[in-house]
Amino acid sequence: MDALRALIRSHRPNSAAAYYLQGHAGRYPKTGGWALDPFVPPVCPSGSYTLAFLASETHNVPLPPAMHGMAHPVIQVPEQAKLAEQARAAAEARIAALEAELAALRSEKRPSAKKQPGLHRKHKLTRPSR
């Protein structure tokens, strides 16, 4: 999915906030578009699609291509099973990295505030007078 996200974002005009795909099977989504930030992956059959961008998720009028004078790019959308597998692998890698980071944080020995001068409260907290 990261490759598809990078491909779609590489064609993004400056003012685009959403995108849609147009293919011989129809337009996906039927109206509006999918967000670019945070990225929402397309939900459509695999195949070749013309990639168009919108000013927002609710607009239906496409923005001009990022490369003026050029046609909207045509991209290949892989099978949803491949996208799901890629997303799962990326999520598992992120979980493993977070677990390793958590283990490292847990193993660090933090100094006690009682043993270090200046880390304890010097003044008693009082309520402001009315």
Total strand segments: 5
Low-confidence stretches: none
Percentage of residues in strands: 15-25%
Number of helices: 2
* Class by alpha and beta content: alpha+beta
Integer-rounded radius of gyration: 25 Å
Sheet of most strands: 5 strands, antiparallel
User: What share of the residues lie within helices?
Assistant: 25-40%
Please explain how this structure is put together.
With 130 residues, the protein is an alpha+beta fold. The chain has a domain at 2-79. Helix content is 28%, strand content 18%. It has helices at residues 2-10, 80-107, and strands at 18-23, 26-28, 34-35, 47-54, 74-77. Strands 1, 2, 3, 4 and 5 form a five-stranded antiparallel beta sheet that branches. A hairpin with a 2-residue loop joins strand 1 and strand 2 (26-28). The radius of gyration is 25 Å and the shape is elongated. The relative contact order is 0.15. The mean pLDDT is 85.
Summarize the structure.
With 130 residues, this protein is an alpha+beta fold. It contains two helices and five strands. Strands 1, 2, 3, 4 and 5 form a five-stranded antiparallel β-sheet that branches.
Entry keywords:
single chain; 130 residues; alpha+beta; five-stranded antiparallel beta sheet; elongated
Set out the fold topology.
Elements: H1 2-10, E1 18-23, E2 26-28, E3 34-35, E4 47-54, E5 74-77, H2 80-107
Antiparallel strand pairs: 1-2, 1-3, 1-4, 4-5
